[in-house]
Design goal:
The chain is mainly β and 533 residues long. It contains two helices and 49 strands. It has a 24-stranded mixed β-sheet, covered by helices on one side. It has a 19-stranded parallel β-sheet. The chain has a four-stranded parallel β-sheet with strand order 7-10-13-16, with no helix packed on it.
Length: 533
Amino acid sequence: MDVYQMTTESEGMIIPGKLKWYVILALALWLAFSGVAAAEQLYVNESGWWRDGGAFNVSETPIQAAVDAASEGDTIFVWNGSYSENVDVDTAHLTLEGEGADVVTVTAADSDDHVFEVTADYVNISGFTATGATGGRKAGIYLGSADHRNISSNNASKNYDGIRLYYSNCNTLENNNANSNSDNGIFLKCLNNDNTLTGNIANSNNWHGISIGSLNNNTTLYNNTANSNSRDGIFMEDSNGNTLQNNTANLNNGNGVYLWNSSDNVLFSNTAMNSNNGHGIWLDSSSSNMLTNNIASDNSNIGIGMWDSNGNTLHCNIANSNNGNGIYLNYSSGNTLQNNIATDSNNGHGISLSHSSNNMISDNAASDNTYVGIGMWNSNGNTLLNNIANSNNDHGIRLYSSSSNTLLNNSANSNIYNGIYLSSSGSNTLQANTANLNGDYGIRLYDSNSNVLTSNTANLNNDHGIYLSSSSSNILSSNIANLNNNYGIYLSSSNYNALQSNTANLNNDHGIRLYDSNSNSILSKLIGKRGII
């Protein structure tokens, strides 16, 4: 064989020696010029760093030294120990892996700088405790102006902010602890597109647990815990199109979950309980959000509330058990409340509307509340349909200074005072409602004019079935007020009302009584002053 004839076992081929070396040289040149290099494993301990199989390099800042020596695609493994340094990561596709947050602690050498500052794409950081970055707006882990980072299983505590993200997309924060920071546990600002926070714990921070600003387009917060913070558990402002699911925000001194000026978000199956000075879930200037299957109980003020918030949907939420008010709307219009439970409020109403119009309130349960089951104040054009407002300690349904509302097929039974009570309210329609067994009146109108009551039932042991006081120009048609009311229908100081085809049988005193009431029509027949039938 010629001296240059060399063999290879690859597929039994024989390659001339010179040709083989040409192939190897060409491959080496291609790798060099393409910038592709084999990923390496680097190691760090408290004294220095080394490459796998390489020499040991002594360093007082061994993590930073290893980061500076690493190339794209490399992995740096940090052994257990305590490290005092501020680590800047500006190499993409780099992985920093600590042996575990319980055994690897990195304390900021300069408290006025971030412990970890990441400005490169595709960086992974896991298994560290990052602490001591206490200067203003400094963080245990800071991610700025870069994308596709994965931050997992870290402990970021006793910093200004635990974890802080700015101007970044497609990042994942998973299973981190961000507790006991002087401001926020996790702070996200100006993020867009597909960020994910899952399984993080942000408790006992001196501001918010998780604070979100200008966060848009399919960011998901899933299964996070934000408890016992000095302000809100989860605070979101100027943020649209995001999903909050299965998060827990309990025992906060502000609100459990607070949305401000945020729209088109979905809140699904979150728990917000025991807020000490605030609300369970609070929407402020926030529209077109969907709240479904959330639990907001035992909050000192409001379970679920809206202020100046329009077009939201609340479906199948539970706001019960010792809230100040279960569900509360103020200056909020065009919302839909359906199939919610708002019971057992300890100092207020089940569902309360103030200065709120054109809302649909349907199929809700608002019973066993300290005051009113469903109440409206200065609220117009709302529809109450198929709601249950029973056994409240005041009234079942109350309208005060509210007009042009429709109450259809609601149940308001067994309340301490009135089943349905209209005060200073006009041009409302009450149809096919049931108001039985109330301690005072089944349906009461006071200083309320031009309302239409048709096909309602007010039976069984009310003081009066239907009672009008100082109320004029109302129409009562086809109502039933039977069976052991003291009076079936009673008009006092009420004029120009029309009563037609009503039934008032088997009551204890009179079926229909008019007292100091003039120019009323009963079956087109005028009844004079003090007329009694």
